[in-house]
Amino acid sequence: MEPKGIIESNWNEIVDSFDDMNLSESVLCGINAYGFEKPSAIQQRVILPRIKSYDVIAQAQSGTRKTATFAILILQQIKLDLKATEALVLAPGQDLAQQIQKVVMALGDYMGASCHACIGGTNVCTEDHHLPSR
């Protein structure tokens, strides 16, 4: 693992504005409503390459908006006219799963996106009604 604070990348373009990232209007509205004015360092380096369909592996310290970064990318790619599950995010714990759900719901509010955290140890029948029927 690299020392803290060092960013290693083969992508040279850093984008310092959400408006310059080719994001949809509804995703931009969600970003603005969430209170983000400028992208964080991880967002400046990850969002545009992923939008351009490059594979991305990124790691950053806590508090760098990693959750919002992948939530933005998921919301950018989903097709709301499909009534099916389009993204699955696995989290190692209940607290993180619920945090991810809150971020996706907040950022996706202007899109009408839905999100549900399926937490282990809960009743499967209760969880089932949140998922699209097959």
From TrEMBL:
Catalytic activity: ATP + H2O = ADP + phosphate + H(+)
SUPFAM superfamilies: P-loop containing nucleoside triphosphate hydrolases
Enzyme type, top EC level: hydrolase
Residue positions of motif Q motif: 16-44
InterPro entries (alphabetical): DEAD/DEAH_box_helicase_dom, P-loop_NTPase, RNA_helicase_DEAD_Q_motif
EC numbers on record: 3.6.4.13
GO molecular function list: ATP binding; hydrolase activity; RNA binding; RNA helicase activity; translation initiation factor activity
UniProt KW keywords: ATP-binding, Helicase, Hydrolase, Initiation factor, Nucleotide-binding, Protein biosynthesis, RNA-binding
Signal peptide: none
Domain DEAD-box RNA helicase Q residue range list: 16-44
Pfam families: DEAD
Chain segments annotated as transmembrane: none
Function: RNA helicase.
Family indicated by similarity: Belongs to the DEAD box helicase family.
Domain notes: The Q motif is unique to and characteristic of the DEAD box family of RNA helicases and controls ATP binding and hydrolysis.
Name assigned to this protein: ATP-dependent RNA helicase
Organism: Tupaia chinensis
Biological classification of the source: Eukaryota, Metazoa, Chordata, Craniata, Vertebrata
